[in-house]
Amino acid sequence: MKFTCSQHTLSKALNTVSKAVSAKTTIPVLKGILIKATEDGTLILSASDLELSIEKEIDVNVESGGSIVVFAKLFSDIIRKLPNEEILIEEKANCTLLIKTSSSEFTIVGADPEEFPDIEDLEDDSNLISFNKEVFKNMIAKTSFSASIDESKGIIVGVLLEVNENGVSMVALDGFRMAIAREEMASEESGESMKIVIPAKILNEVSKIISESISESEEEDGTISIAINEKKAIILIDSTKVVVRLLEGEFIKYRDIIPSDSSTTLQVGRTALQSGIERASLLAKEGKNNLIKLTIDGNLITITSKSEEGNVKEEIIMEKTGHDLEIGFNSKYVLDVLKAVDDDEIKMEFNTSTTPCLVKPLEGRSFEYLILPVRITSTY
Amino acid sequence: MKFTCSQHTLSKALNTVSKAVSAKTTIPVLKGILIKATEDGTLILSASDLELSIEKEIDVNVESGGSIVVFAKLFSDIIRKLPNEEILIEEKANCTLLIKTSSSEFTIVGADPEEFPDIEDLEDDSNLISFNKEVFKNMIAKTSFSASIDESKGIIVGVLLEVNENGVSMVALDGFRMAIAREEMASEESGESMKIVIPAKILNEVSKIISESISESEEEDGTISIAINEKKAIILIDSTKVVVRLLEGEFIKYRDIIPSDSSTTLQVGRTALQSGIERASLLAKEGKNNLIKLTIDGNLITITSKSEEGNVKEEIIMEKTGHDLEIGFNSKYVLDVLKAVDDDEIKMEFNTSTTPCLVKPLEGRSFEYLILPVRITSTY
To answer: Is A380 part of any domain?
Structure first.
């Protein structure tokens, strides 16, 4: 194997595939990146931690084809620190690799490419569904934070991605809150459907790759495509292929949890509410459940909290229909929602002080958040 | 005590004095900030960890004077998170403090100001020496990183600040390297002299306060002043007074260590050398001493390093007078020096492979760095 390529292009590609390298793996070859040069002038970089595999193709000048596995961290560090000029990379005897520029010469130890796991290829008859990059990325940002981070909780560490005749939706929940994001489908093809659950932390890596591809691409309305291959999803993002192991089993029947009506509805400024809750949280660290109390009375939300260090009262003006109410929350869950939303104004729907609060946009149903209240004692 | 003040001004002042609050102190009152409002419209904020004390004055609208100690972290967090508007602060019964804006109302628990340690005042006959802010800050940046970080090493955890008829100098050393920065004095007053040793980590905090004062001030050539009061230095930085406990004892006779001549002198581009050493260091992690070898031959410096993961060779063009030489270094010590210097080109002076290397500017003596070599074995 012998090829030359631009430092900048190779360094960016390594940054992308490195997201699939596990630092903690006990399988030595998985600390590596497989680099494969083909005679037609393509370099294929691959990494996998078995849950997530990433393969990226870049154009290089190949003198002779071949492949080798290199330690991901060392190889990426070397390439990143080289000046932005043409790099010569050549396989030498005993599985070593020469990396050469005008003033630098590295020889690093590689590993046998035979040991590297195969990464799924798209099958010829695969049914690809396309999504707008920005839309897909925003839906991840609106939902993935609500998934459980407790690996023992099974399927709820994942985000449900559902495509049907109504459009596309993502859903995540952890037992204390639930997030739903919905969009019309970008494409008009009918009959497309999909229902898969992707681990939230892997979906966040996919989101980063999409962000990188958006910033690199000149196209305004780029798309990604997803195909399902048995228990894996193959996600195509420009020249990057991401293979994700799906979570198996039935997702929670989340539609049953959403309350169908409410006795109190507020319309409130999002940033004012967020600032007020952030300040009130300063005195809500006690006992780790970040308890704040919302008193909904007339056209004011009064947020109160107290600890041994003092107490706080914040007032926010809003519009209300329905009853007055007192309700307690873990401030973190409310803040997570307010930070995930862009809208200037939001709608909050309540029933009683022990039933969940629903957060929605003023119009439409592009997002819905359900937040469980915390019971407040009479002495609070 | 009752006063109103701008959120922005108070928050910045708290940020400054908080640098003297120790998170680890066992004396509860030292987790606090003393706030004292005087009838003439001044708010004095003070904090101290006994090693370092900071006192800052700001203008506020005082309705009634008084003083209280507040928990530094909570009070700073509250003020920082309030909107930039006028804040009312009022002492209430039982040592509590009310903090009020148009929509927020905090009541926090304070502590008795009587328990707070006194902070030295400048004496009437104090001899103040002035330094240009930028110059003083740059001298700290050029030297303090070379001081020992091992608290058991005594005086070498400090930076020597010396003022005499030749100007001002700062010196720091840790047994492996030494840094010297020298400047002409800004003021022309004759007969000024000073020789003190300030703990490096405290000098770094002083540097941050100077940076803040530079960014806040419209003055181009601002100065700070230092007076010595027994075992303390009192440093005046605009409206901030910093009191520092000095290190006692005799500083190392550093002038004796500087070699007076050299058998090899190089002139080399600083950033090229830095990049080359940074890359070579990628393979120099073995055994924690970051060993790199410099081979000085003709008009080339060849930097080599190796580990189990591979080996590297970097070539840098330079101008040389004197003998060729092979010498080993801990790359960290060389990189620290190259990062601290701004000059495009530097001079490096060597004698043998077991004697220190001296790094200097091409002209003048505004800095001198001495770096001890690492012995390289014949098999390297």
So the answer is: no
